[in-house]
C-alpha cells in the first residue's frame, strides 16, 4: 500500500496531463508527462503483483499493426491491452483491402469505430514510420471531431524509424528500480549523474533499426544522466536527434558526448547498452531501394554493409572491457534479442559470459514493457489517472478469483 | 432515454422473432424481422454512445472465417463480438486440417463446442458462397439436435456470392438516420418514395462481387423506395435476384426500374450508390476456371473483362451528373473502399470532389456495420430482444469504468 | 446439482495435487492425478451446460504455439482459455524474432510476463517435441524462481512426438460416459476389463504422428482395460512407450497385447480405435532428413512409405470386421479427421457406413477436449480445485446473462 501511495503521490506531483495525447516521440513530451507514465506503470505493476484487477474497459478493441516482426513488443501490447480489458485485433495488411487504394485517413477510421487503442510498429523505412503514425493520429483526431468516432483511440508507437518509446521508457523504468535506494530518494533522482554508455556493437546481421539508440540518447539526457554515445566512424544516427540529445543534456544538467571508441564510452560507466544498428545513411539508401523494389541494389547494399560491419568485430561487450566500467560492475542492458557470441552467432554484440551474468537483469528489464504500454493507454484515455488508479485500488477486485 | 425507448417500442411493434434464425439473404426474412434488427442495432449504438456496457456473454467464442480479404467487415465482426462479450477466433483454413478431407458438417461441429456465433465471408465463387453457408447452418442445426452442441451458434453472412446483408442493412440504417425528421415519423417511413440510384461505375480493377448491388436492390425495394438500377449492357446481376426486387417493389408500393444510363438513374435521385461490379456471366466463367485452376484461362478472362470495363469509363460519378439529382444534392453512398479518380487510381468510380464532399457521410455509413452485426447476433441468440435490451439499460454497467 | 457434487466428491477422493505441474506425458503423472483432471473436466462441462460462468481470471494471456496444423485442438485450446477468462495470443514464429537467435529460455520468459497458460503443438520431429516442451517448462520454473515472472504459467501439451494427452484424456472421458451405468458405479470402474483395439489403419496420406496410439496404449492400460495393439509388421511405435504400457497393464490388473492382425485385435472388442500412423523408424529418418533439409531424400522417403502403406489397404475398419467385435457393436473411436473410404479418399481407415453409424459419437468424443484442457489449466493454476469449483457454483454467475 505504501508503495502504491508513493506512485500516486509522484503522479500528483507531475501535474501533467496526457489525456488524448500520443507519445510518438518522447522528445515531443514534457519530462513531467514522462514521469507520470513511469509512475502509472509502476502503480499498474504493483496492482498486478498484488492480484488486483486493473480492468477498466468492459469492451473495446485494441488494434495492432505490425509492419515488421516482433515477439516481445507484440506480446507486451497484447498483454497491456488485456490487462485493461481490451481485446486485440490484428490489422493484417496482407489480408485486408488496404492495398485496394484506400487512404490512411479512411483505414484509420474504419478500424476505430469500437477501438480504444491502436499500436503500430513501422520501422523499416527511414522517414516513413513516424510520418505514417502522425498521419494516423491526425485522421483519428478528425474522425472524432467529425462525429465519425464516438471516442478517439490512443495511438501507441511500438517502434518507428525515429523512436522506440515503449522500449526506452521500460529501460528507464528498469534503471529507476535498479538504482533505487532505501533513503527515500526516488530512483529517478538517483540516476542524476549516472553514466550510461550507449554504444554500437558488432552483429553479423544487417539493417537493425536506429530507434533504440536514438530513443535512449534522447530520453536519458533529460534526467541529468551522463550519456556517452559511441560508434565506429560512419555509424551516425539521425543528426537532428543527436542535436536534440545535446540540448536536453544541457537543460537537465547532464551531459552528452559522442566518441568513436567503445572503451572510452565504457570508462567508469554505471550502465552499458551495447547494441548493433545500421548507419542512418545506409538506412536512407535502403529506403530508396526498397521503394524502387530494386532487389539487386538491396543485395549489394546488404553485402557492403555487412563487410563494413565486419571491420568492427572488436566492438563486442566482453569481460575485458566491462572491467573499465565503474568498479567493473556496470549494469548491462539490452532490448533483446542480443547477438550473443558463440550462443546465437559466432561473434556478436556481447560475450556469453557477460550476457549470462546479466541475463536475468535483461529479462526483468523486458518485463516492464507491458506496464509501460498499459500506462500510455491509461494516461491517454482517462482524464484523471490518479482518480482512475485509486478507483482500482478501492474497488479491489481480484484479478485471479479465489 | 427517450431515444432508447423509441427503439424498444419499434422492436415491440414488429412482433418478429429471429431467435435461432440466420439472415443469410435478407429476402428470406420478413420486413418485420429486418425492422427488428435495425432497431436493435440502434439501441445497441445508443447504449455504446452512452457508455453503457452491452456485455451479454461472460465467455464464448466468435468464429470468423474469411475466404476473401477484408478490413471493414473483419473489424466490424470483431467489434460486434467484443461488444457482446465474445472472443474472436479465426478459422484459418491454411493452418487447419480442413484440407485433410473433413466434411463441412464435421468442421462446423468441431469449431462450435463453445461458440456463440460464426461469421463467414465467401464471395469468390458464384453459386458456392451462399450454398456453403447454408450447409454450415444445417450442420449446426443437426449438431444441436444430436446433442453434440450445447448451443446453436448464430451464423452471420459477412458477404456471399449473392448478398451482403451486414453491409446493406448498415447502408439502410444510415439512410433512416440521414432522412429522419423531427416530426415523429421514423426514418423508415420517410424513405417511402425516396429514389435511390444503384448504378454500375467504372473501375480499373476486376472481379468485384455482385453482392452489394444485389443486396441493395433486394432490400431497398421492400420499404417503398423507388429503386433505379443502371449498368452498361452486359453487366447484368443474377436474374432471379432482379426478379425478386421487382416483386418486392410491387408489394411495398415502391418501384424497381432497370436502365442502361447512369444519367437516367441519377435523374431526380435522393440517393446515389455508384459502384463497380463484374458481370455475373463473367463471374460464372471465372468460377468454372477457378475450379479447374485454369490460370491461363483466368488471365485471358481478366484481360477481356478489363477491356470491357474500359469501354465504360464515362460511368463515373462526377460533379456534373450529381447536378441531375434532386436539387443537385443527392446523398452519395459507397461500401468503401471506393475507386476515387486521381486519388486511388487514374480514373474510377467517383471524382475526388464528389467523394470528398461526402467522405464523412461514407464513414458514418460504415460505422453502423458493427452494430448491425451485433444486432444480428443478439436477435439470433436471445429469445426476447426487448427484455434483453431493457436488462442492459436497467443493469446500467459502465462500459468504460470511472 | 447431484451430478456436480458427485464430481467434487471424486476429486476429493483422489487426494491428488497438480498445482503448478504440467501434464506433458500422462505416464509421468499418477492415476489419481489423471482422475482429478477427468472429474474437473466433468464439473466444468456441467457448469457450462447449466449456464454457470466459469470465469476465474479477470485478465491474463493464453499463449498458443502451433508448429503443425490444427483445427480441433486450436479451437479447443482457445475455447478452454476463454472459458476461464483468458485471451489467446498466438506465438507465430514466422512473424516473431525467434529465428533471430534467441534461446528457448528467453522466448519462454518474454511471452510469459502476463500469461497464465502456454499451449504447444510440436509433433513433427521425433525426439524433439517433448524435449522442447520440457525445456520451456524448465525455463518457466526458472523465470518464476528468479523473480522475472510474477506467476508460473501452466504448460499444456497440445500434441508432441510422444503423447497427445488432451486427446487421449478426452477419449477416455468419452468412454467413462459411454460406459457409465445407473447403478452408482462410475464410468472409470466400468471400464475395468473392457477390451479396446488400438489398431493401425490404411491411409493414403503420409507421416501421421505416433502420439495418439502411443498415448492411448499408455493411458488405457492404467485403468484395468484390456488393450490390444495391432499393426502390420514394420509399423512399431516407440519401444519404450510400448514397454511402459505393458508395465501399466500389469500394475492395474489389465492386459496389453500386441499382434499383427486387425481381425485378431477386433475379436470381442468393446471399443475399436482404427487409425493410421507412420512407423517410428520412418519418423526417425524423416526427422534426420528434415533437419538436413534434404528435400530429395524426403520425397523418396515419402514415396517408399506410401508404397509400404499401400501394401496394407486391407487394414480398414468395415462392417465386416466390426462383426467380430463384442455383439458386433463395439464403440468406434477416432481423433478426427478420419480418412473415410469414398468420402474423403478412395480408400482409407474406415468405411463410410461404419463412420456414419458412429459419426455423432466421434463428435461427442471431440467435444470433451475443451473441458479437458480447461481442467488441466485449472488444476495447474489453482491450489485447491475443489474449493475453486465450489466457489464457481456458489457464485452462480450466469454465463449468458438473462
The termini of chain A sit apart by 21 Å
Largest interface: A-B, 39 and 42 residues
Query: How many domains of chain A?
Result: 2
Number of helices of chain A: 16
Mean pLDDT of chain A: 95
Strand order of the largest sheet of chain A: 7-6-5-8-9
Question: How would you sum up the major sheet of chain A?
Answer: 5 strands, parallel
Q: Tell me the strand percentage band of chain A.
A: 5-15%
CATH architecture of the largest domain in chain A: 3-Layer(aba) Sandwich
Could you estimate the helical fraction of the residues of chain A in percent?
A: 40-55%
Oligomer: homotrimer
Which homologous superfamily in CATH is the superfamily of the largest domain in chain A?
Aspartate/ornithine carbamoyltransferase
Rg of chain A (CA only) = 21 Å
What string, H for helix and E for strand, traces the elements of chain A in order? HHEHEHEHEHHEHEHEHEHHHEHHH
Set down the secondary structure blueprint:
The structure is a homotrimer of 402-residue chains.
Chain A lengths: L1 H13 L16 H19 L11 E6 L5 H13 L2 E4 L13 H7 L4 E8 L6 H17 L8 E7 L4 H14 L8 H5 L3 E5 L11 H10 L5 E5 L8 H14 L2 E5 L2 H5 L4 E4 L5 H13 L2 H16 L8 H4 L8 E2 L19 H16 L1 H13 L3 H11 L7
Parallel strand pairs in A: 1-2, 1-3, 3-4, 5-6, 5-8, 6-7, 8-9
